[in-house]
Amino acid sequence: MTEPDILYYDGDCALCQREMAHLARLKSDQLVLQNIHDLEPAADIPSRESLLKSLHLRRGGAWTVGWTPISPLGNIHGLASFGAGCHGPL
Questions:
Q1: CA distance 57 to 54
Q2: pTM for this one?
Q3: pLDDT of 85 strictly over 50
């Protein structure tokens, strides 16, 4: 079984909380929604400051940053309508 993808988000942001609650109802088990405020610093993830500046998606060992992680979620995790209008940096 492959490791799940991890989408890191700002759990202190009201907008992010609403969007992640919506995404949580739609997502597959292969996507983990990770509140960055629950993380301990680690060498294998970006700094908290970096994570707060934009969305980060980790797929295996690869990182995608900004709104770009949202677009493929529809194809990968069956979330066809999620992030359909997201095109700019977050």
A1: 10
A2: 0.77
A3: no
Q: Which of 63, 74, 68 has its CA nearest to residue 90?
A: 68
Element (H, E) at 52: helix 48-53
> How far lies 36's CA from each of 4, 8, 46, 49, 76, in Å?
17, 6, 10, 10, 22
User: Exposed, middle or buried, 55 (CB in 10 Å: 0-12/13-18/19+)?
Assistant: buried
Tens of pLDDT, residues 38-79: 998 888 999 999 999 988 999 888 998 887 656 556 555 555
What distance in Å separates the CA atoms of residue 27 and residue 77, rounded to the nearest whole number?
Answer: 6
Our CA angle for 16, 72, 65, nearest 5°, is 55
